[in-house]
Amino acid sequence: MMIGGATARVPAKINLHLGVGPLRDDGFHELSTLFCALGMHDDVTVRPAEELTVTVTGENRRAVPSDASNLAARAVVALADRIGRSPDVSITIDKHIPVAGGMAGGSADAAGALIAAARLWRVDRDQVDLHEIAAELGSDVPFSLTGGAALGTGRGEKLLPVLHRGEFHWVLAVSGTGLSTPDVYRELDRLRAAGDRTTDAGTARPDGLMVAIASGDVRAVAPLLHNDLQPAALSLRPLLRRTLRAGTEAGALAGIVSGSGPTCAFLCADAAAAVDVAAELSGSGVAKAVRTASGPVAGARLVPH
Ligand code: ATP
Predict the structure, then answer these.
(1) How far, CA to CA in Å, does 158 sit from each of 14, 132, 243?
(2) Where in the chain is the domain with CATH 3.30.230.10?
(3) Where in the chain is the domain with CATH 3.30.70.890?
(4) CB-defined site of ligand 1, < 6 Å
(5) What percent of the chain lies above the pLDDT cut of 90?
(6) How high is the pLDDT of residue 179?
(7) For 176-225, what is each residue's pLDDT tens digit?
(8) Which residues contact 143 (CB under 8 A, 6 or more apart)?
(9) pLDDT tens digits, residue range 58-105?
């Protein structure tokens, strides 16, 4: 039977803990991070076509490249190379994850394209290791495949699942303009070269946070959220301080810059509190868009057509 196309749904991520160690010889930093997949998704559809094309739809389609540099296109090319076939497919991305927002939107699309193309081409996943291809595509792509909650080491591509109980409720304050991840790491290196790094977690494992997540106790989790990249993101985008303050003033238990930013993520006591915080933040004008999302949720998965 010929398959007409395959669609994957892939979650965004936030980092509940992001510890940044020293710069490695390969230009990456050694990380110790606790990823959490959130219920905010992109859908990636792959169909047979005469040549490789990318079409982007959805509320966040702007600023997403529709040429071969799109991470979903690169993922399809990498899988096609690996199995020795041509990558002639049309890729459609329905984009809801903020772009350049520190929520791994590009990585999500790469992970979605990998599992959708693997399905379309009937790739035997016992023979072809998608996780290995994912790691070559980007540090966050393996986590987009696995989802849930996971400890990431190396540059984030080495994953260990983390026990978690229940759901945590978040409000996301999305900025109108993104921040470049390499720029934020460079700013961190500059700040570190200039002096004080006493607040850095580095590569220490976030044991206390892992215990708190396993217990499902949101009030134990809130004070342990940590991001070594936050000072760098705030240095490049000072207005984010106001956003973070507005979230806690609106009743969130804690707020943090998500990954390299500029999205700010606010942890709330429960689903109702998240709706209240989102309503108040929307009115405060500190963010272009305000969303609620809960997690951990599953990673990239195929959805029926
Ligand atoms: P991370 O959290 O993994 O550091 P991010 O969420 O900050 O990443 P992305 O949304 O992945 O950032 O986008 C980073 C850049 O990658 C964008 O500015 C865009 O030019 C490029 N890009 C390539 N492919 C995609 C894609 N499918 N979706 C979004 N951006 C893409």
Answers:
(1) 17, 10, 32
(2) 6-163
(3) 168-295
(4) 63-65, 69-72, 93, 99-107, 109, 140, 178, 181, 259-260
(5) 91
(6) 94
(7) 999 999 999 999 999 999 986 667 889 999 999 999 999 999 999 999 99
(8) 13, 35, 37, 104, 107, 150, 152, 156, 159, 299
(9) 988 888 999 999 999 999 999 999 999 999 999 999 999 999 899 999
Residue type present at position 71: L
As a whole number of angstroms, the distance between CA 305 and CA 303 comes to 6
Establish whether 65 is an annotated binding residue: no
Nearest to 108 by CA among 189, 44, 164: 44
Cα 57 off chain centre by: 19
Task: Give yes or no: 13 in active site.
Answer: yes
| Fold held by 168-295 | Alpha-Beta Plaits (3.30.70)
From the options 3.30.230.10, 3.30.2000.10, 3.40.50.790, 3.10.20.90, give the CATH code of 6-163: 3.30.230.10
CA distance 206 to 32: 8
**What is the pLDDT at residue 199?**
74
- ipTM of the assembly? 0.94
* Contact between residue 152 and residue 145 where contact means Cβ atoms under 8 Å apart: no
pTM: 0.95
Q: Which of 36, 43, 64 to mutate to test the pocket of ligand 1 (most atoms within 8 A of CB)?
A: 64
Report angle CA 197, 200, 204 to the nearest 5 degrees. Answer: 135
